[in-house]
TrEMBL record:
<dbReference type="GO" id="GO:0003700">
    <property type="term" value="F:DNA-binding transcription factor activity"/>
</dbReference>
<protein>
    <submittedName>
        <fullName>TetR family transcriptional regulator</fullName>
    </submittedName>
</protein>
<feature type="domain" description="HTH tetR-type">
    <location>
        <begin position="11"/>
        <end position="69"/>
    </location>
</feature>
<dbReference type="InterPro" id="IPR009057">
    <property type="entry name" value="Homeodomain-like_sf"/>
</dbReference>
<dbReference type="Pfam" id="PF00440">
    <property type="entry name" value="TetR_N"/>
</dbReference>
<keyword id="KW-0238">DNA-binding</keyword>
<dbReference type="InterPro" id="IPR049445">
    <property type="entry name" value="TetR_SbtR-like_C"/>
</dbReference>
<keyword id="KW-0804">Transcription</keyword>
<dbReference type="GO" id="GO:0000976">
    <property type="term" value="F:transcription cis-regulatory region binding"/>
</dbReference>
<dbReference type="InterPro" id="IPR036271">
    <property type="entry name" value="Tet_transcr_reg_TetR-rel_C_sf"/>
</dbReference>
<dbReference type="InterPro" id="IPR050109">
    <property type="entry name" value="HTH-type_TetR-like_transc_reg"/>
</dbReference>
<feature type="region of interest" description="Disordered">
    <location>
        <begin position="190"/>
        <end position="209"/>
    </location>
</feature>
<keyword id="KW-0805">Transcription regulation</keyword>
<dbReference type="Pfam" id="PF21597">
    <property type="entry name" value="TetR_C_43"/>
</dbReference>
<dbReference type="InterPro" id="IPR001647">
    <property type="entry name" value="HTH_TetR"/>
</dbReference>
<feature type="DNA-binding region" description="H-T-H motif">
    <location>
        <begin position="32"/>
        <end position="51"/>
    </location>
</feature>
<feature type="compositionally biased region" description="Basic and acidic residues">
    <location>
        <begin position="193"/>
        <end position="209"/>
    </location>
</feature>
Length: 209
């Protein structure tokens, strides 16, 4: 999808609006376009010309992280170790969830304000599904694990970090990694135990006691 380049002044305004929105999201302040206009020193009409709704602005704030995750997913598909590729992708995803406050609401929204957001979310879903299918085929994860299971598992993990971790990004990432390591332990396929063929037909001697 192509877009018409903005004039220099319009591009500066767009950048300023997105930068202020990023600050508000990081502070946990809900996006209100009138508030964004006041903080940027721009007219309300200017902000609305760039972003018709707060949801469109929030999706724009989240877009760089969505794009980075999409690019990482494509690289993960090239990894010949299917289990490692899936685990690395999940690690990147949950770290993004717990450090970027814009990501979770955009990912959870059932309707997207911008076509680009829908494209990125569809690409991420397809990539995650492909990585899981490869890992399952390689015997690296439980055979009954479905792609639809990963979403609530990752959301639950991110929620646990919100409840139990501090606000510093480093603390949140460390907590997320520990929780994910425990979760991945349960997702991995159980090792098969091969019986020693030499023991076939062998019986233990009776206990003399």
């Amino acid at each position: 999808m192509t877009t018409t380049p903005l004039r220099k002044d319009a591009a500066r305004n767009w950048d300023r609006i997105v930068a202020v929105a990023r600050e508000l999201v990081d502070q946990g302040t809900p996006l209100q376009l009138n508030d964004v206009a006041r903080r940027t020193g721009l007219g309300v009409g200017t902000v609305y010309r760039h972003f018709a709704t707060p949801e469109a602005l929030l999706e724009t704030v989240a877009a760089p992280r969505l794009e980075a995750l999409t690019a990482h997913g494509r690289r993960a598909l090239a990894d010949t170790d299917a289990g490692r590729a899936l685990e690395d992708f999940l690690a990147r995803t949950v770290e993004a969830q717990v450090t970027d406050a814009a990501l979770a609401p955009v990912a959870a929204a059932s309707v997207d304000a911008l076509p680009r957001t829908a494209e990125l979310k569809e690409s991420l879903w397809a990539t995650g599904t492909a990585l899981l299918d490869r890992a399952r085929a390689a015997g690296a994860v439980r055979p009954d694990l479905a792609a639809a299971d990963l979403v609530p598992l990752m959301c639950g993990l991110a929620y646990a970090v919100d409840v139990h971790a501090g606000s510093a990004p480093a603390d949140r990432i460390d907590t997320a990694r520990r929780y994910l390591a425990a979760l991945l332990g349960g997702l991995r396929a159980a090792p098969t135990t091969e019986r020693d063929p030499r023991a076939a037909g062998r019986t233990e001697p009776p206990d003399p006691r």
